[in-house]
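Continued from yesterday's entry.
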Amino acid sequence: MKALIVEDDADLRRQLCNLLEQRGYTIEQTGSGREALYLGQEYEYDIAVVDIGLPEMSGLDLIRQWREEGHTMPVLVLTARGDWQDKVEGLEAGADDYLAKPFHTEELLARLNALVRRASGHASPILRYGPLELDTAARVVSLNGTEVRLTSYEYRTLEYLMLNAGKTISKAELTEHLYHQDYDRDSNVLEVFIRRLRQKLDPDQSLQPITTVRGLGYRFALGGGSAA
């Protein structure tokens, strides 16, 4: 998942970036409301974390302008504890959820996970496809009740495809949303991840959930699964 962190407190911004990177997010970050506006206009993100008290442009004005321009990525706003007016104004500006500072990291991660799932049309943290299950909260994949060991990159690839089940996802989109800027975008590493995933998820060739759409990318099938 690709996240935009907008926080003018450099220490907190660094902590947020480190936390989300450890959880597999690809991060872009800024402490400026105006720069965040530009980033949101030029690039696609799966989620944004926005502090309300930003220099140059407030977090509320930032969110309002994003929404007026049709940008629909989920937004979690950070507010001062007990400042209920900020919470209400944030939601009215177009934010999807809020979190008061200081906060527990597990609550932040849970809220972000829920927002990403809901934006993809999934209410439950468990994504299912026949005997295959992916727990987005625990980051565990199982097949017929047995855990499937995946690398971090393999997990990210599978999660993104399952959250977007039924859609054709190009290699460029997968790379943009899942991997850091220093990732070799011209390599065939993504094809290796897909091949390994197919081997691990479909050892007897009976499930075949990931299909290749020639010249376009990959698609996770809808037929055998459910959006719980």
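--- second protein ---
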Amino acid sequence: MTSYQIAAAVRRPGRFGRLRALARGRSTLVAAGLVVAVVVLVAVFAPVIAPYDPNAVDPMAVYQGSSPAHWFGTDDTGRDILSRMLYGARPSLIGPALVTVASGVLGTLLAVTAAWFGGWWDRIISGALDVIFGFPGLVLAVTGAAVFGAGLRIAVVTLSIAYLPYIARVVRGAALRERRLPYISALLMLGVPSWRVCLRHLLPNLLPLILVQVTTSFGYILLDVAAFSFIGLGTQPPDPEWGLMVAGGTSGILAGRAEQSLYAGLVIVVFVIACNLLGSGLSQRLLGEDR
């Protein structure tokens, strides 16, 4: 056996081991991404794939179990649970998506400007973020609903403020480290405007971290939006929404018909787990973190 063959034989186990490790990590990432993609597609095409009108009441079909006519059964007014879950995906995802975009964009803007200018501006931003971080998102949402009234719009605004620190504090720390790197000083010495350095160089290097943060936060935001609807301050009946369906099915639990709360709660749990796994997988791929 030549020295080349010996070297190849020695390297082969390590190479296959790395490929197996990569496949294991990627399979989890792909599975989580598929779950998220399927739920998004369901929300988009709900009117096409839903077998019934989600608000169609049938007094003759109250609390029916699973059957070919109603795969997930019916609720206390005879409405098809599967159709309501399919239609409920829209408000259940739109609210968290708006909160994620608003908190992500504003949090990134505050973090980058605080890291770039420093001084009194950084102290003001950091202090404000610390104050907001001390209030749970659901408490802020309930306070906003008490002042301005119930509704999904109030939940989106208050939760966007509540989740600012979750994005801004992490991005600020990374922006501070990036701000001290030599290439930033070199670009400034060459006369490149500060805004162009931030947009063309600093921000693109922070995008992987921002993507990981917003992906992971999306699941927790969905939980808060669902909880807001559960207590009756978010989406209002008879519109279908997962958190509202969990609340609406509590009366059926006492009657031995827990299908509505069970299925809606299960979908929420699975989707949140998928978001967490997706965020963890993206952190390994984009940030090189070994979790």
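The radius of gyration is 24 Å. The mean pLDDT is 83. Will compare against the first tomorrow.
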